[in-house]
Amino acid sequence: MSNMGSRTKDDEPVNLLSLDGGGVRGVSSLVILDRIMEKIQRRDGLEEIPKPCDYFDMIAGTSLSQSCWGRLRMSTTEALKAYDDCAASIFNKKNRKTGQVSDKYKSTALKEAVQNLVKERGMGEMMRDPENPKKGKVIVCVMPADSVATGETKLELGAGVRKGLFIDAAVGFNNPANYLLKEALDEFGSRRRFGCLISIGTGTKSTETVRVKTGFKNYTKAWEQLQGLIGMVKNVATDTETSHKQIHDRFSRFPGSYHRFNVPDGAKEVELDEYKKIPQLKALTRDYLGGDSVGRQIREVVEGLGARGRFKHGLTLGHAYFPDSDQLFLSDRSKAMGIPSSFFIGRQDVLNKIDQVFCERDTGGVPRREFLLWGIGGVGKSEVALKAAENLDGSFKYIFYVDGSERSTIIHSYAEISKRYNLGGTNPETMFHMALEWMGRLADEWLLIFDDCNLSERAGFIPGRGKGNIIYTSRFNGLEHNFPAHLVYHVEPLAERDAVELFWELLVSWM
């Protein structure tokens, strides 16, 4: 038998592949994926090892070198060889920069490696397959180089007005699974059947707490402690397991819909740039794949992805991204409204602007006033919103909070409002609607913090009747176009002076 090729029926379930970032550790992802492809080859009696792009409708990663093999329609065997060759050229000593802490290597070698791969595959500069297959679409998560203070390697991407310098989105988005689900929803539609989401990591690494000690003897270790602190912050910023746990909770009631593979302590054994340890990492990964529980999970994946694979959970992409509200229960699924950090520094310009927009009035809460805090994840949008709410506390009888990260958390947040004000109801969906109706009827002024909003259409998720005051925070690209320019504030990283002040305050508090 020959390889089955790309299956392109529009009624087939959509299968998604998410790849964590991890430098040379990305080879671990490929070894795991290679095992899955080998099992499918044996199951379906294929002459050659199949390509991931023939089984996954969309593939996401956080780096060009990690994801381009998907766009280039390579087999895992070809990708592993290319990875070995590329790692040796990118992470060798000759390509290393001097006097750099975060940006250790020149971008030239990476750019040349990718260009050579594209040339070898004969797909042209735009990497377009002339057969225009429906499967194997690839997204690479990047962010504008000027959107975050970092020394990461910059690459020029895009064309025309979209052309610019970008860095990979490893900081804050090292596990792109959530963004992959959103992209798939936009690409294939909410009614398309959902198959499975396979998420593959590049090795776990425990985060150790660093405590700075005082005293004259310990000042000699200040540089070592500072390096440890920087490393701890970076580990938190590039954490992938938090996203995994969120997605696992979302799909836990639908067997076969989500699978996660990640070698325990793989990141601890091999650093991002230790390409000479690639054989060691491959061995660690193969040992991990030999475990009984992992083996069972691999078999489940193969059952779903194979030629005769079937998915019994019955989910659509819409259900996968917005879990069915009928299956929600009141729990601790959504975030509760917090208080601004005691270390809040700067941001006075945006706080003054918010004060002006939501100044006191005597109009019964009409017309509605809205303001959007927009920016990349982790930049401090929620902290600004909470600080603004604290400053405005005397102007509003009610201040509400909604976790807008997904439909289930929105419903849960409104259900909590219903519970707090004794509006009645026991079903979350009913309590959600009761809270919306009650808030819309209030004659007193109220303020709603709608945190992490990713809804392009907000009708049905905010109180009606055009009353009240709402501060949105969002990282959703495009939401800002729904607001007048003077009611949108792009939250950027702290100014250098404020960042240094915050760093020293935190340092002193830990002493």
UniProtKB/TrEMBL annotation:
Q: Which residues cross the membrane?
A: none
Do the record's keywords include Transmembrane helix? no
Domain of life the protein comes from: Eukaryota
For this UniProt record, give its keywords in alphabetical order, as a comma-separated list: Hydrolase, Lipid degradation, Lipid metabolism
SUPFAM superfamilies recorded: FabD/lysophospholipase-like, P-loop containing nucleoside triphosphate hydrolases
Name of the protein: PNPLA domain-containing protein
Naturally occurring in which organism (per UniProt): Podospora pseudocomata
At the highest ranks, the source species' classification is: Eukaryota, Fungi, Dikarya, Ascomycota, Pezizomycotina
